[in-house]
Here is the input.
Amino acid sequence: MVERQEVMLDELRHLVSERALTGETVLLNMGPQHPSTHGVLRLLLELDGEIVVNCIPDIGFLHTGVEKDMESKTYQKAEVMTDRLDYLNPMGNNLVYCLAVEKLAELDVPPRAQVLRVILAELERLSSHLLWLGTSALDLAAMSVFLYTMREREMIQDIKEMISGARMMTTYIRPGGLWRDVPVEFEAAMRHYLEVQEPRIDEYESLLTNNSLFKDRTIGVGVITPQQCIEWGVTGPIMRGAGLAYDIRKALPYSGYEQYEFDIPTYTGGDIYARYRVRVAEIRQSLRIIHQALDKLPYGPVRSNNRKFVPPPRSELGVSMEAVIHHFKLWTEGFRIPAHSVYVASESPRGELGVYMEGNGGPLPQRIHYRTPTFVNLQIMPLLSKGHFVADLVGIIGSIDVVLGDCDR
Amino acid sequence: MDERLQPAVEAISEKFGARLYEFRDETSLIVGAEQIVEVCRLLKTEFQFDMLAVETVVDYWPDESPPAPAPNLLGEGDLRVPTTEGMDRDIEGENARFHVVYRLYSFPKNIFIGLRVPLSGNAPHLATIEGVYPNANWHEREIWDMFGIHFDNHSDMRRILMPADWEGHPLRKDYPLGYEEVQFTFNLRDVEMRKPRPKE
Here is the structure.
């Protein structure tokens, strides 16, 4: 045991400062079981008194080998695992996976499914941002916000349960469209939710935006410059909080995002407060998109009619031999994807969520790689935390919006 | 090919002899392992590809080169770009087992460009591009962890997702997906014997 410890310290020697070796600064372990690390994130801290000299993130505690598992499953089965990656954005993960499959197979998606996908992706963004708002306010000792945001998030979970039967792991978006059409009550439930949600954003803001305690702990803490964002590949609200108006929904639109009117909120502070402002503004923009999408929601099928990739509807199975054959082939063998690769990027609540997918001409993928925003964004942890107090670290972790399932895959 | 990529692709092809690989609307350049740092530097400084979006690896074991053209399944001609033009680029007389894949993003041009680096052998080396794109750090650590491709001159070449004392590189194709048998006090020897192990 003693031997092992020495080896470990030796491995980290190049990451800590000279002073750690003489004992002038203290090495302290934070996590992985720590309530404020939003999951199982371990940080090795080098402290000079209360001040963080170095911060070495250690990830992988939630590594589940999803990418390895996917290689042994057909494309339909592999999709189920994408829900489990970023468990606060399951529909967004489904969506980007389906976009990659559709790009490889040149599958069409009916207009109704496109609009519903946008609604669901935005709903997921809302639910993720609400949870983020609650928990990171909780980290900074503002307890009541958490109770309010969870109340509204519950409404979103209920809507998800209504359409798919599951609160979180829905696998509702499928290659070529959706699993099934939404129930008739969906639109009324959405309108009711929008009505409730809109005034309540002001309520959250009244608790935080001008709260001097909150401002004291967030303004000027964890500052990142736009240049650093680009260098470190940091995307999402962190980048927009630094003043760069980059949003993949605008830059490289997918699922018909170009048809909606919305703004990219940016703030120039680059600190925790700017990220908070960006996320709250994004909640408003998401509501705006959902409003437009509900108004224009067309009628029609929600699944592609391409039977080589999309199973036939249940009603046809009793009357059509063709349909039975297609159904059987799809669920036993799966569909085949050409031996080519694509990279598809989408905007998750945390930043650029990309999928690199390569087929090999058979029903099993050659490689699926998820470029997850948390994995990339977490790299700037040392950059953000140097020179701050240990207490500020909690706010910084919260402001990155860490989801370890997303990070470790 | 998109006209926004034209100058960059032409320059790289001319200077480094890179080959082109196109599919749908995506363009990739296939470059040699020894040139990757220079190619990245040129793309970043001259052609404003300022962000590394993703860096990952595809393992083609046991084919040791991308699979042969697939049968015509979608009814739209050859599904694969002719492999003679570089997908099976020879390195030291061997076919490439791994392809390291990069996607760079350009903010002014608003477009991705892909790079592919074929690597042969079971313990390949590659130069790190950390000096050009700092965020390659964790991507390359993940590649080392999952595929066992060593990045020379990397500042922090440790495992990132798997435990530090893990043996083998799980995302390699010859690493068994496997399962671990349930252990009891009496069958430890059998479990140890039947355990699937990666081939070296």
In short: Residues 81 and 116 of chain A are 22 Å apart (CA to CA).
